Amino acid sequence: MKKIAVILSGSGVFDGTEIHEAVLALLAIEQQGARWHCFAPNIDQHHVINHINGEVSHEIRNVLVESARIARGNISDVTLLNINDYDALLVPGGFGVAKNLSDFALHGSACQINEDVKQASQAFAQANKPAAYLCIAPTLIPQIYGPGAKATIGNDPDTAAAFNTMGGEHVLCPVDDFVLDQKRRLLTTPAYMLATNISEAATGINKLVQELIKLA
Prior knowledge:
8 helices, Rossmann fold, lyase activity, Glyoxalase, alpha/beta, seven-stranded mixed β-sheet, two-stranded antiparallel sheet, globular
């Protein structure tokens, strides 16, 4: 049975993982007859957002602890991710990718990736194992795969421009489809960069996961 490593960035769209994307992806993995295990960096979140009013809450939360809420405890520190145990990688979106896994939300194309997340992700790239990035997560790709990597965040012009500035090659893509960089065995889909509801997000995610498992 194929096994997929999933890297989370917290719990909640505005300061962590986009929960719908994560759950849809985990469900799709199981429906394709594969297994999953989640990982996250053991660090404090950049900040905590009240998801009712959008205001910053003055508290401290840990990315690994919060991600465990989504994974129901089926999760480990990303430093423990051994790629020999996994056939593919998947990274859901959410602002946690741009605030916790990297600082893209603060610095755009001049961003840096959390070193542990970067090492784990690059290990899949170097081993030529397939990987999938959803929503805003493709902003990590140029620093992981180097110049020329093809990916999509949908059609947002500012984010696409930042992706290209970092050395990637952005490809426009509708919500119900995905982009495959065959050379790098790399898949991306817009998900909630374009989706207006769960069903729309599911259309592209399901297609992407089906292809990811096929490639694994």
